[in-house]
Design a protein that fits this description.
Helix content is about 75%, strand content about 5%. It is an alpha+beta fold.
Length: about 650
């Protein structure tokens, strides 16, 4: 080995040891050094928050552990606002770790707390975070739902900066949909929205970075065959990206410029653009970008070789570039960290158990010596005590039996009284609710009709105004009519004690007949109702009540479903029961609301996704009819993800 090579090797080893020493300064080390300077508990909690927010991009797993520890300290010190801040950070870190469901749960928890406090700014940020998580998990439709809700709050509180950021996010989603699709009108609409967003940002929030919008406009105008405007926005994006040294932006903008040159037949210029892109990637050290743009390079190279101007426009979003290999490495790293942590804790637990076993052996040995020395003296006392205890035990057993019998009788009586009281409370609540519904839902259309008649006597109203008013009154009458139908069905059962008529029912046919009733509503909301029940499934029940239950649950599923979603009816067969399930992809329900519905508490009616109204008693009647037939209904739901209603029918 030459002296020069030896010196170089030693130098490299020294640098490697320095790097390892620096790497060992983990977030916990940094936190401990911060805590060593502090004595106040509130400042220690803030130190946890500071370190976790600084660390989450580079070491998300460690940042999560620090944030969770800080959250526990915030709970112990009753620091309510910091608790929400920690939960928000944990939600962001979960999305960084690709734990999208856990991230959404955290952000929803923060959202509910901020809504209860009336914190519109915080609620807006939580909705924005939820939209970002859905966007990362490739659910653009749900992302748009929460971005639009956040936009409403941002405008309400006058937060121009976040209104601009949200508008840029919505513009990205619309642009990607247009670029991936074939509908020319989508491209035109996406361009219009992005131009409006750019104008708003320039006037109201000039600090917002717009180069990504310019890149997307360049792609969209090229797809719309407007080369002049595509060139203008592409050049603008390149200037901004190069000024800020944004490698991703430079590459995406210049790829579009190469596409423009190809479509213009300027193949030499396109080749030069590709060489510039490659030099930028080499200079930045982000060599993974070669893989990212390999398809584009191949297409452009082929177009140059074959003199083909019809190159396919790339549709990759420059704001969401995460390589698949990076994801796999990140997940593997997290799994390895979890495995190492588990093995370490397992080894520590084994050592502790070994120490406990040795201590137990020593104690047993000592106890054995003590017992052996006193056994002779205690033997007589033990025998005497056993005789006395046996006699006393017999007396206690007799008394205990009498007490337990009396207690069971009292318990049974108390349970009957409780059930009677509960039934009376529910009946009183139901009656009050009926009065409230009748007084409002029946009075409203009549009052509106009276006003229309009074005005028409005094003034000659235009026919269009009369028609619009009558249509509005008709909607109210339709809701009231549905409510009266449900009340008449229930009151008929209560007053006449109508007997049940059990017979064999083909579930598929009943569901299919009910489906025909909702043809118009399904078409308006662009919903799909799938009847996946096996036509061979047969149950025994009362036809009228079974149809009522199916109609009401499907009606609710339509009411709370988002545009273009699917409602599925299917069955599950077990040894002791058949379950008919109705699942939707709608708004979902909170745990509190779900519990109230399961307990058959009567509630106010909630508006559907198209502002549909109801009386709020249909589901209660479904529970009552199911119970009369010996069935029961259970529910599952998640906010934003939909609900499933299970009709459980014993065999």
């Amino acid at each position: 080995m030459t002296p020069t090579l030896k010196t170089t090797l030693l130098s490299n080893l020294f640098l490697l040891f320095c790097f390892i020493a620096i790497a060992q300064q983990t977030g916990w080390n940094k936190l401990n050094s911060e805590l060593a300077k502090l004595s106040d508990d509130s400042l220690k909690v803030m130190a946890h928050y500071k370190v976790s927010t600084e660390l989450y991009k580079s070491s998300p797993q460690e940042a999560k552990e620090i944030a969770e520890k800080g959250y526990q300290l915030a709970v112990e010190n009753k620091m309510d606002e910091l608790q929400l801040s920690f939960l928000n950070v944990i939600g962001v870190i979960e999305s960084k770790l690709y734990h999208f469901d856990e991230s959404i749960k955290m952000h929803f928890k923060v959202l509910r707390a901020r809504e209860q406090k009336g914190d519109k700014q915080g609620a807006m940020l939580s909705l924005l975070n939820i939209g970002n998580v859905f966007n990362m998990s490739r659910d653009a439709k749900q992302a748009l739902v929460y971005y639009e809700q956040a936009m409403v709050l941002a405008r309400e509180i006058g937060d121009l900066r976040n209104e601009a950021n949200i508008a840029v996010n919505i513009g990205n989603i619309r642009a990607q949909g247009a670029l991936n699709g074939t509908n020319r009108s989508d491209v035109v609409n996406a361009i219009a929205y992005l131009l409006k967003t750019v104008d708003f940002c320039k006037r109201k929030a000039p600090e917002v970075d717009l180069y990504n919008c310019y890149i997307l406009l360049g792609y969209l105008y090229l797809k719309n065959e407007d080369v002049k405007k595509s060139t203008y926005y592409t050049d603008l994006a390149i200037d901004i990206a190069e000024a800020g040294n944004f490698t991703y932006g430079i590459c995406y903008a210049r790829i579009n410029r190469a596409n423009i040159f190809v479509q213009q037949g300027q193949f030499d210029a396109a080749k030069k653009e590709v060489e510039i892109i490659k030099r930028n990637i080499e200079k930045s050290g982000l060599r993974d970008l070669f893989d990212e743009f390999s398809d584009d390079f191949t297409k452009i190279d082929k177009a140059i070789r074959e003199n083909d101007r019809n190159i396919v426009l790339t549709d990759v979003d420059s704001a969401a570039v995460v390589a698949g290999e990076e994801k796999d490495l990140l997940r593997l790293k997290v799994r390895e960290e979890l495995r190492e942590k588990y093995e370490t804790e397992k080894k520590e637990l084994e050592n502790k158990n070994l120490l406990l076993e040795n201590a137990a052996i020593e104690r047993e040995s000592l106890l054995f010596k003590i017992l052996l020395g006193g056994a002779a003296a205690m033997l007589f006392m033990v025998i005497l005590m056993l005789v006395l205890l046996q006699r006393k035990n017999g007396q206690l057993h007799d008394e205990k039996s009498k007490v337990e019998q009396a207690r069971d009788e009292v318990k049974e009586q108390a349970e009957k009284i409780r059930l009677q009281h509960q039934e009376l409370v529910q009946a009183d609540r139901f009656r009050s609710r009926i009065f409230s519904v009748v007084s409002h839902d029946l009075r409203a259309p009549i009052a509106n009709f009276q006003v229309l008649l009074s005005v028409s006597r005094l003034v000659d109203l235009p026919a269009d105004d009369i028609k619009k008013t009558l249509i509005a009154i008709g909607h109210e009458v339709e809701t009231a009519s549905k409510m009266l139908d449900e009340l008449l069905v229930w009151s008929s059962q209560q007053m006449t004690n109508e007997s049940l008529s059990f017979r064999k029912l083909v579930v598929y046919d009943v569901v299919d007949q009910c489906k025909q009733l909702f043809t118009d509503r399904l078409r308006i909301k662009e919903l799909s109702l799938l009847n996946e029940v096996n036509p061979a499934v047969v149950i025994e029940g009362d036809l009228k009540r079974f149809e009522f239950i199916i109609r009401n649950i499907i009606s609710n599923a339509i009411k709370f479903s988002y545009l273009g979603k699917t409602i599925t009816v299917y069955h599950q067969e077990f040894d002791d029961e058949v379950v008919i399930a109705i699942a939707d992809e709608g708004a979902g329900m909170s745990v509190e609301k779900l519990q109230k519905l399961q307990n058959r508490d009567m509630q106010e009616s909630f508006l559907g996704t198209f502002q549909e109204k109801g009386a709020g008693i249909g589901l209660m009647l479904c529970h009552e009819f199911a119970n009369r037939m010996g069935w029961h209904i259970r529910m599952e739901s998640k906010i934003g993800l939909g609900s499933v209603f299970y009709i459980c029918i014993p065999k």
